[in-house]
Write a structure and sequence with these properties.
The protein is an alpha/beta fold. It has one domain (6-294, 378-447): Luciferase-like domain (TIM Barrel, Alpha-Beta Barrel), CATH 3.20.20. It contains 15 helices and 13 strands. The strands form three sheets. An eight-stranded parallel barrel has the order 1-2-3-4-9-10-11-13, surrounded by eight helices. The protein has a two-stranded antiparallel sheet with strand order 5-6. The chain has a two-stranded antiparallel sheet with strand order 7-8. The protein is globular, with a radius of gyration of 22 Å.
C-alpha cells in the first residue's frame, strides 16, 4: 500500500509528550502478550534488570519524557473467587516492586524520566517522602509519582486490613496524605545545608522546620529526613476517574492520566479535568496524557497482520480475570454468549460495553467484549504504517486537546523500538515531538513545549 511522504502528512499544532506505559510483570496491558515470540526476544527476564535497562535506553533514544510503571500489590481474584486464572495466564502477575528497579534503569541512562505508582493506602506520608525524595536524588531529578488509592480487596487483605476503605473516604484520606507530603517537602529551606567544615555545621537547624501535622488520618510532627531533592518533589501524576478522583487529580496533579476508548470521551475528560482545576484555583492546569497502544509496520498490511497475531493470543478466561479484577464484579456469573446490550444491571460497566458495540457496528457478546478489553485494557489500538500512525496521533491529540500519550507495548522491548525507529522520526518531521531534551529533569521534559 502506498504511503504519503512526511511533508504531505498532517502537521502538528503543538508538541506531544510521550511515555512508555509498563508493569514490572510478564504482561503489560495485553492478555497473553508474554507468549508472543518477540516478547523478551533478547533473552532477558522481566524479573531481572537487563530488559528494563534496554527499554529505558530505547525510549531515551526516542526522546520520550519518561517510563511510567503501573503497579498493584496482589493477584486479581474476583473471577470465580479465585486467583487461579490470573496466575495461569500471567494477568499482570507475578508483579515486582518498580521502585527498586528504578535506580538500575537510571544508572544506564541520563535523561529519561522514571515514574512509579505508589499507593497512598499502604504507606505513611513520611515514608513516601523518604523513598521518593531519595530516588529523586539518586536519579538527579528524574522521578515521577503516579498517585493511587488501591482498588481491590486482595491488596487490603494482604496488607492486614479486614476490608477496603470506602471509595470516597479513600480520596479524603489521600487528600490529607498529599497535604502532609507537601508540608514535608517544604520543611527544609533551600539553603539549610551549609556544610561548613571549619565551623562544624552540616545543616543550619534554624532552617529546618517541624511540620506539627495533626489531622483526621495522619499525625506527623517532624520534618523530611531527606534534604531537598533536585525537583523539590517528584512530578505528580494521577488517574482519577470518579468525581472524587477527578477532584483530587485537579487539585494536586501535574499530569492527569486517563484511558478512554474514543476521542470524544477523551475530549470530555480533558475539558472536565481542566475545569475542575480552574475551580480549585490552579494557575497551571494538569497536562492530560492518554493511554494508547501502537501497532506499526513498514506498511499497513504488515501492521494489520501484527495486530491480528497479537489479538489471537488473548484468552477469554484471562480477559475475564482482568475485567473482573478491574471492575470488582465476577463475570463468571454471566453467560458468555449474552449480548452486552441485554446486560442492564451493571451501570458502571455498561457504558464501556456500549462503546465496544458502537466501535464494531454490531451486537457484541460478553465473550467478545471481554476479549476486546483484554487486548489493551480499553486503550485504543493505533494501527498502520509510520505515516498513518503519526497522522492518527496528531489528529487524536488535536481533536481531544490532550497533551500526550502513554504508550503501552505489545511485546517487550521490541515494540518500543519499533515506535522509536519508525514513528518518532515522522512525528519529529511534523513538528509534533522534540528532537532533543531541553533539560535534564523529568519536570523540565514535562514542561517542554518546543
Amino acid at each position: 500500500m502506498a504511503t504519503s511522504t512526511p511533508s504531505a502528512g498532517k502537521r502538528a499544532g503543538k508538541q506531544l509528550h510521550l511515555f512508555g506505559f509498563v508493569i514490572h510483570s510478564p504482561m503489560n496491558h495485553t492478555v497473553g502478550s508474554w507468549r508472543h515470540p518477540r516478547n523478551n526476544s533478547l533473552g532477558y527476564s522481566f524479573a531481572e534488570p537487563e530488559m528494563w535497562q534496554e527499554v529505558a535506553r530505547t525510549l531515551e533514544r526516542g526522546k520520550f519524557d519518561g517510563i511510567f510503571f503501573a503497579d498493584q500489590l496482589a493477584a486479581y481474584s474476583t473471577y470465580r473467587g479465585s486467583r487461579d486464572a490470573a496466575l495461569r495466564h500471567a494477568v499482570q502477575f507475578p508483579i515486582q516492586d518498580p521502585l527498586l528497579l528504578i535506580p538500575m534503569m537510571a544508572a544506564s541512562t541520563r535523561h529519561i524520566g522514571l515514574l512509579s505508582t505508589l499507593s497512598v493506602s499502604y504507606y505513611a506520608p513520611y515514608m513516601a517522602v523518604r523513598k521518593l525524595s531519595t530516588l529523586d536524588h539518586l536519579t538527579k531529578g528524574r522521578i515521577g509519582w503516579n498517585i493511587v488509592t488501591s482498588f481491590h480487596q486482595g491488596e487490603a487483605l494482604n496488607m492486614g486490613l479486614e476490608k477496603m476503605t470506602p471509595h470516597d473516604e479513600r480520596y479524603a484520606r489521600a487528600d490529607e496524605f498529599l497535604e502532609v507530603c507537601h508540608k514535608l517537602w517544604n520543611s527544609w529551606e533551600k539553603d539549610a545545608v551549609v556544610m561548613d567544615r571549619a565551623g562544624d555545621v552540616f545543616v543550619d537547624p534554624t532552617k529546618v522546620h517541624e511540620i506539627e501535622h495533626r489531622g483526621k488520618y495522619f499525625s506527623c510532627p517532624g520534618f523530611s529526613p531527606v534534604t531537598p531533592s533536585p525537583q523539590g518533589h517528584p512530578v505528580l501524576i494521577q488517574a482519577g476517574a470518579s468525581g472524587p478522583g477527578r477532584d483530587f487529580c485537579a487539585k494536586w496533579a501535574e499530569g492527569a492520566f486517563t484511558i478512554q476508548l474514543t476521542g470524544r470521551a477523551l475530549a470530555s475528560y480533558a475539558e472536565d479535568i481542566r475545569e475542575r482545576a480552574r475551580r480549585a484555583g490552579r494557575a497551571k492546569v494538569p497536562k492530560v496524557i492518554a493511554g494508547i497502544q501502537i501497532i506499526v509496520g513498514e506498511n499497513e498490511r504488515a501492521a494489520r497482520e501484527k495486530q491480528e497475531e497479537l489479538n489471537e493470543l488473548v484468552s477469554v478466561e484471562g480477559s475475564l480475570a482482568l475485567l473482573s479484577g478491574h471492575t470488582g464484579y465476577d463475570f463468571s456469573k454471566r453467560d458468555l454468549d449474552t449480548l452486552v446490550e441485554d446486560i442492564q444491571d451493571l451501570p458502571g460497566i455498561q457504558g464501556l460495553f456500549e462503546v465496544f458495540t458502537k466501535m464494531h457496528h454490531e451486537k457484541v457478546s460478553l465473550r467478545t467484549a471481554a476479549a476486546l478489553y483484554g487486548r489493551s485494557v480499553a486503550q485504543p489500538q493505533i494501527v498502520g504504517d509510520p505515516e498513518q500512525v503519526a497522522d492518527q496521533l496528531i489528529r487524536l491529540a488535536e481533536e481531544s486537546s490532550v497533551d500526550g500519550f502513554n504508550i503501552t507495548p505489545t511485546y517487550t522491548p521490541g515494540s518500543f523500538a519499533e515506535v522509536v525507529d519508525l514513528v518518532v522520526p515522522v512525528l519529529q518531521q511534523r513538528g509534533a515531538f522534540r528532537k532533543e531534551y531541553a533539560g535534564t529533569t523529568l519536570r523540565e521534559h514535562f514542561e517542554q513545549t518546543e
